[in-house]
Amino acid sequence: MNTYIARPELASPEPHSTRPFIEVQGAEMVFHSRKGSFHALQNIHLQVRRGEFLTLIGHSGCGKSTLLNLIAGLLQPSAGVLLCDNREIREPGPERAVVFQNHSLLPWLSCFDNVLLGVHAVFGKSESRARLQERSQAALELVGMAHAAQKRPQEISGGMKQRIGIARALAMEPKVLLMDEPFGALDALTRTHLQDELLKIVARTQSTVVMVTHDVDEAVLLSDRIVMMSNGPAATIGEILDVNLPRPRERVALAEQPAYARARKAVIDFLYTRHAPVERAA
After folding, report:
1. Based on the domain organization, do 79 and 207 belong to the same domain?
2. Predicted pLDDT at 201
3. Residue 144, domain extent
4. What is the pLDDT of residues 170-188, one digit of tens each?
5. CA distance to 7, 68, 162, 174, 261, per residue, from 116 (Å)
6. Pair (90, 182) in one structural domain
7. HSE of 139 in the Cβ direction (CA atoms, 13 Å)?
């Protein structure tokens, strides 16, 4: 059986190195349209360590997805600089794979071929087709979807589609996995199961992960640190919380730990007491 092998630079004996792997230096984002300008983000300074799982949380309109898209290279900042592994982020690249809430699978391709498409884009010029197929199969096995390799997206559930999207991202062996509310559209039971699976996958691959979420419990369960965003417009980082919980994590056992309750309370206090959303008149 083929197995997924983490990138050599991620298989470090010093996980969560203190050297910044992703750096956001004074990023600003202003969108311009016919109706005028909208200042989405201001004065964003953030460092992400190699091998860290970091979540971005905040109310709707606080710029979480905008910040993720800046890191992905899908947007260019109006001011400031973003770096990944000491290189400026100017455009999307295979070292930064993105998983969206919408799985974005091509419906006319099988699950296997959807994964293979991403693998071919990254490794197609340097590896044989047999090796590309091995990579694709290994990624499907990693997310528990090898049995559905020849099914098309419309033949599988929403949770299974998201697994395929994660497999496609991981098969490209990215340095950074960027996830924009990947479980937001799923039912509660499926979301819970995939959160547990993601914990196992990240432990195996030692991936650096930046994830957008609205879910407080999801953020505490998965994260090493939680970045809490102030309300927009002109949103910024309000507070960063260290989640001091041991890994591996098991949700039932965590629920009984005082440290889990303290972290959860801190995020809820920030979001709903100190930064409660303001209702605007119609």
Report:
1. yes
2. 86
3. 102-173
4. 888 898 999 999 888 788 8
5. 18, 25, 16, 15, 42
6. yes
7. 27
